[in-house]
Specification:
The protein is an alpha/beta fold. It has 14 helices and 16 strands. The protein has one domain: Rossmann fold (3-Layer(aba) Sandwich), CATH 3.40.50.720. The strands form five sheets. It has a seven-stranded parallel sheet, sandwiched between helices. It binds nicotinamide-adenine-dinucleotide (NAD). The site of nicotinamide-adenine-dinucleotide has 29 residues, from helix 2, strand 6, strand 13 and helix 8.
């Protein structure tokens, strides 16, 4: 990035460090948001949509898609909470900051209410600030989307800092993985999490904070009669189970599922329904950090595209709202009471094809038998790079979209 000392105007290029890009492009992020809005508008409006929606984790990935579907598919007022870095000293902000500026700009242009709170959603202070805003601007909310993905949590009562790990439980896990930077398929070996790491991961990514949010909203009388809340989770195929479903993060997700039942139960007087929606594997900042997943996703993209059933965050969440939660539908739940929008990913034909490719994939055939090119393209787009129609040679202002 070349920046002139006295201004925030610069030409911004991607700077990738492992599984993260440390720069973000304001115009590109805005284009990415615009494309998702266009998709939703093309699908058509959602009937009986929620009117006042709180989205926790609203700036990227599944949370941003939820905000876009609620706002542009259902004309909802949206209040978004997230944790993003602001632009500073010539450095770009994080992508979620630009995504949010863009969302607010596009929403306001159509007369749609959109406000945002940038801070630690795990804290009492941000919960209080959010509740103040709801009371002032919305009265009550009828949908709460819980879409936080965080590596750490400062516990609001003790102040203890907990960190989550992406590790198996019980035994060492060895599998193929993809070094997305070097484009090399190699073996990875991950030692199992110890008991402390497992319980800390549950504190960070489990259901306690979701429950705290719902309790705080109930105590402040900010939930409508019959309100809905939904949190997102993942199951995926067996190749990822040791690191995901059966690993430390899986324990946290099991805890999230328990919280859904506890929330529905504690709010039954208000007829509030809490759901966990099992979503498909997509490229987001959170999923890029999980060993094995980028290789699986590259193979999955290839197969799902061949079967014409490829989906990203926006397609998934439009389907969640239009086919499960609203449009006069009652969610179809699996045997464990969860919504399944991972049905296309988990279709046995898709999984069988991916399993076959998984056995064959190597550095040499990566580009032929997987859709790694799309994986990388989508990864860069998370940070606003590689969007059509954006002039990446032009200097841009890092403080606005
Ligand atoms: P993401 O990294 O794109 O988004 C995470 C969001 O959480 C961002 O808005 C970020 O600002 C916010 N956040 C993180 N820490 C915060 C904090 N302390 N306070 C406030 N906001 C904070 O992640 P994602 O992949 O969209 O994940 C969202 C949910 O979807 C997670 O529960 C994840 O497990 C689930 N999920 C993801 C996938 C996938 O393939 N990516 C699949 C199924 C389910």
């Amino acid at each position: 990035m070349t920046t002139t000392a006295e201004t925030n105007i610069s030409v911004i290029k991607p700077r990738i460090r492992g599984f993260i890009c440390i720069t973000a492009h304001p115009t590109g992020c805005a284009k990415h948001v615009q494309e998702q809005i266009d998709y939703v508008k093309k699908q058509g409006p959602i009937e009986n949509a929620p009117k006042n929606v709180l989205i926790l984790g609203a700036s990227t990935g599944y949370g941003l898609a939820s905000r876009i579907v609620a706002g542009f598919g259902g004309q909802a007022k949206t209040l978004g909470v997230f944790f993003e870095k602001l632009p500073e000293g010539g450095k770009t902000a994080t992508a979620g900051y630009y995504n949010t500026l863009a969302y607010e700009k596009f929403a306001q242009a159509e007369g749609l209410y959109a406000k945002s709170i940038n801070g630690d959603a795990f804290s009492d202070q941000i919960k209080a600030q959010t509740i103040d805003t709801i009371k002032k601007d919305m009265g009550k909310v009828d949908l709460v989307v819980y879409s936080l993905a965080s590596p750490k949590r400062v516990h609001p009562t003790s102040g203890t800092v907990y960190s989550s790990v992406l590790k198996p439980i019980g035994q060492t896990f060895s599998a193929k993985t993809l070094d997305t930077d070097k484009e090399v398929v190699k073996d990875v070996t991950i030692e199992p999490a110890n008991d402390r790491e497992i319980s800390d991961t549950v504190v960070v990514m489990g259901g306690e904070d979701w429950q705290m949010w719902m309790d705080a909203l109930k105590d402040a009388d900010c939930l409508t009669e019959g309100a809905t809340t939904v949190a997102y989770s993942y199951i995926g195929p067996e190749v990822t189970w040791p690191i995901y479903r059966d690993g430390a993060i899986g324990k946290a997700k099991a805890d999230l599922e328990k919280a859904a039942a506890a929330i529905s139960n504690s709010l039954k007087n208000k007829n509030v329904k809490a759901y966990v929606s099992i979503n498909k594997a997509v490229v987001t900042q959170a999923s890029s950090a999980i060993p094995v997943v980028p290789l699986y996703v590259s193979l999955l993209f290839k197969v799902m595209k061949e079967h014409n059933v490829h989906e990203g965050c926006i397609e998934q969440i439009y389907r969640l709202f239009s086919q499960q939660l609203y449009n006069g539908n009652v969610p179809a739940l699996d045997e464990a009471g969860r919504i399944r929008i991972d049905d296309l990913e988990m279709d046995p034909r898709i999984q069988e094809a991916v399993r076959k490719l998984w056995g064959e994939v190597s550095t040499e055939n990566l580009k032929q038998i997987s859709d790694f090119d799309s994986y990388r393209k989508e990864f860069l787009q998370l940070f606003g790079f590689g969007l059509e129609g954006v002039d990446y040679e032009a200097p841009v202002d890092t403080t606005k979209v």
